[in-house]
Amino acid sequence: MPRRDLTEEGSYMISLLLGSIVEKKDLSVRRNASLRTLIELMNKNDKGVVVVLAGRKPLGILTERDIVELLFNGVDLDETAEQHARKHLITTKSDRTIGYALNLMIDNNIRRMIVLDEENDFLGVITQKDMLRHLENDFYRAAIRVRHLLDRLQPLISAPPDAALNDVLKIIVKHKISSVPLVKSGRAVGIITEKDIIKLAARRVPLARKVSGYMSKPVIAVDPATTLVDVVAAMNDRDIRRVVVNDEEGRALGIITIKDVLRNLEGDYSEFLERKLRHAKDVLNLLPEMMIEVSDARKEHLVAWVNEMVLARFGRKLIDRPVTRLIPVKTWEKICSGLRRSGTVEDVRFRKDSQIYELSGFFIKTDGKAERGRIQLIIRDITEDIRLSTTDPLTGLYNRRFIHEFLVKEIERSKRLDKSFSVVILDLDDFKRLNDTYGHPAGDAVLRAIAQMITDNVRRADIAGRYGGEEFIVIMPESASGIASYAAERLRSRIEQQAIELPKKKRASLTASFGVATFPQDGTSPDDLLVAADDRLYRAKREGKNRVVFE
Q1: Interior/surface letters 428-438, b for 16+ CB within 10 angstroms, e for the rest
Q2: Is the backbone peptide bond immediately before 520 cis, with ω within 30 degrees of 0?
Q3: How far apart are CA 282 and CA 270, in angstroms?
Q4: What's the pLDDT score for residue 285?
Q5: How far apart are the first and last CA of the chain?
Q6: How many CB atoms lie within 10 A of CB 233?
Q7: Which is it for the CA torsion 336, 89, 63, 50, positive or negative?
């Protein structure tokens, strides 16, 4: 095959949009189709994959490997495809480039990917084999030879040609490989693949028969001196996914697959891998709990890879989606600003649903055709840390430290907006006597019950806390003295009327005394307001308990 300068053409090919090359024909079935129908379609499309659809939306996917495992487990092929289709899908959009999709496939260790249109409807499938066909020209720029890959190849797993088909099937399932060379006296005399097994199953060939009658031969082989250019040409010319590597004596050393070849494509991805290795120590030093890799795909920031911890928390739904599906837009803009300024960001906090996360990260520049670079994000769930640092462990209410910090901020806010707010302090009456009578476990049960009553009877904007011992506090933003005293009276009545369950099936009734202070009439500093509310609380105690004092 003549060599030519195809640098410009190669760069163009890696920038092709998936929508222009995606395969669409014979690649999907309805959810109620049988496995047998799906297998017939898989043999027809020669892609090693069929997508199961619910309407026009992808519901699941079945690959050659899935079918081989189902055959191995004796599954009835008249069962519906939906029962066995994998629910977790990695999809991408038709306006993504080949280069971006290649990185996404390699990052997530998959051989094919579902492509969606603008409405997120199924458009087709792109495979590594398709990539190889379109990217062949890029290999003319590479000087890599098979020997450069040998130390990265998996040890050769083979079978003798007189083995039964069922024995080869066991090898494929056990080792999760796509093909098995049939070796005699050290030489590969044939090969059998997942695709062959599936075709035989469709023909209902008994798996007890010897593999020699069904293996592909002669074996397409290369030696260690062969260039990747010639490996790619052989794969494309013969329409195959792997070649056997022989030594100088013709003995089988291993197998090179399309995946192995694509991992060594000279261009965007190999350059990224080199940079990624150089930054490995940075990643280790950050000690990530969850790790997300974001592709700076020039127009968008897309999640390209996540680790197992992220998968466990969020599933695969983040992959190939804008990172702002996870991180709020304003927070992401702040992160990008920091990355542009210094290449790193640290200790950025954001909220997702009811959880609070802390994020650090750095940027790896690639300047490739498919993407500008990658952003490594290290994310830690700090919800529990914050809860422990701001809440009382017994009652779950805010602790004294947080209440004081909030009070300082509420004073500043109310001054700025020219608003009033009130502070309510309540203390349980005769709590020591209850503790002495029923014991400390009963006292704890009472404190928890009172905390729940407070939570149930204040507004969402109000901040309730345990101030110490049997004393509680409520800060009521934008509430004048009258409103606060009314709310306190309602809570006092609720406490008086409710019998609280204690350990050992006992019950107790008790009361509480309240003191109310209001900003700015009763003070303009935290100490002034707390002293005023505390003084009124003890006036309520002196005047007979179980009452609210607000002036």
Answers
A1: bbebeebbeeb
A2: yes
A3: 19
A4: 35
A5: 98
A6: 14
A7: negative
